[in-house]
Amino acid sequence: MRRSTKKRLIPLALALALAMVGAALAVPSITVHVKGVGAGGPTRIENPIQQADVSWNLDTTTDPDVISGIHVDLTINSTVATFSGKVYIKFLDNSNNLVYIYSKNIDNTQVTSGHITFDIDKLYTNANDADNGGTPAIDFTAGTVKLEDLAHFYKVAVVYVES
Question: Beta-carbon neighbour count of residue 160 at 10 Å?
């Protein structure tokens, strides 16, 4: 094979490899790195959440554009042995305004192999509804929520509130 032919094949092979990787990553997944609060104050709030991974559950059997829920995997900080509180998963727009919110009580008894995992089936527009089971703004159990319905939020924030 001539050297000039080999030079042309390398970019083509690289482009093919990148296209394959891009296709494998087509389902969006969000990794959230959590920072502790109160590090400079007299009382440090021990944050049990080290990392949060948020991914979409897609209905792959009938319509892959339909979202059947959101899966959350919280990696727990092993240095915090005992904790009890509430975690808020906030979905924000590009101006950091709250679009949707979900809340869940968590404690150290729910930890399995260093993680707490759960699925979100409803999203709310305010914390009060999220805490008290008010009317959801998005209900994934209906089977009608499409990816484009959630295109107006850009960030996910994870907030832990100690009880």
Answer: 20
Give domain status of residue 56, yes or no: yes
- The string of pLDDT tens digits covering residues 79-135 is 888 889 999 999 998 888 999 999 999 999 999 999 999 999 999 999 999 899 899
For 20, the 3-state DSSP assignment is helix
Across 128-156, b (16+ Cβ under 10 Å) vs e yields: ebbeeeeebebebeeeebeeeebeebeeb
Number of domains in the chain: 1
CATH number at residue 103: 2.60.40
What is the side-by-side strand order in the sheet with 155-162? 98-107, 84-92, 155-162
Distance in angstroms (rounded) separating the CA atoms of residues 125 and 88: 12
Phi, psi for 26 (deg, rounded to 5):
-65, -30
